[in-house]
Amino acid sequence: MQKPLLIAFLLFGFSACNFHTEDDMDGMDDMGGGEGMNIDYPAAYVVNGESNNIEVLNLLDLSQKMQISLNGATFPHHINLSPDKTKLAVAITSTDLSGGHDSDGMSGMDGFKVIVLNSYTGKIEKEILLPRMPHNGIFNTNGSELWIAQEDEQLSQVLVFNTGNWSLKSTINVGRGLSEVTFSSDGTRAYAANTLDATVSIINPDTKMVLATVAVGKDPVGAWPGANGFMYVDNETDQTVTEIAVASGATTETIHLGFKPGYVAYHPSKQELWVSDATNGQIAYYAQQNSLWALQGHIATGADAHAIAFSQDGATAYVTNQGAGTVSVIRVSDHSVTATVPVGKKPNGLAIRQ
Fold this sequence. Notes:
Blueprint: E1 20-21, E2 43-48, E3 53-58, E4 65-69, E5 76-81, E6 87-92, E7 113-118, E8 124-129, E9 134-139, E10 145-150, E11 157-162, E12 168-173, E13 178-183, E14 190-194, E15 199-204, E16 209-215, E17 220-225, E18 230-235, E19 240-245, E20 251-256, E21 261-267, E22 272-277, E23 282-289, E24 292-300, E25 305-310, E26 316-321, E27 326-331, E28 336-342, E29 347-353
Antiparallel strand pairs: 1-8, 2-3, 2-29, 3-4, 5-6, 6-7, 7-8, 9-10, 10-11, 11-12, 13-14, 14-15, 15-16, 17-18, 18-19, 19-20, 21-22, 22-23, 23-24, 25-26, 26-27, 27-28
């Protein structure tokens, strides 16, 4: 069932941004793991927001754990793995976002940056220092660019860096209170979730131009990609998920949840939509019935369920539980929890390398 929406097309100019990178790499050996780690196994990288580190889980048996330090950074947030699987980008917010992303500005604070690490050694390769809060950093589809979502109460910006020399390529103006910037699964569009405006800016990754600004629910946090040609926006305060068609940019459905969503993930082979229920500490999963998403069941995980990641073969799901300090391991075929792994305090972001 298609639901029409008037899409306002807006053109935004580029503007300068005050930032700098730490180019002196000689003193960085001790920033991310001392002499360096040997992460040569399938791994889950769990961002512990309050413990201020990244915990590495060996996915072969879940027993081996290592912690990557973050050079004194506080409250790391979401994490992203480069397409070649060699680099990790983690945003440092210096702010506890576990209660929600509508932070109403961060004037007078500092410590904002995005840290890039080697995924095999845990060593810090680059720190990009920022004047305003970055909610996430994400690599484009070929890894040549790192896109950073930088929040502002009046005019947020998406910063695009060249990963070859870490120079700033583009500054894209979007809306107010930007949270996450993401890409569609085919890489043809980028999406900026403007939390304070209740909109999503749709960006052409090649031209770096904003193509459209789409109205969604109140306090959108991220537009999460599905392999089915849609994006799924989690609206925290409205307790809804907005479905946006990548091809047209139109909203096609609003899913009413009845709980605050933390993350949305689409499972392609099961054709299910998984939504983390931060309110009740569980995953709600949906399937299409009569061309609409319908609730099928729940999977109890832990307090303040947040990020969801599927294994490469789609057989296993991993969920961070911020309130419980755990990661739930779920067998996708029957939606059963097979393991609960204690990690650090307030785990939020999650990346899988296999």
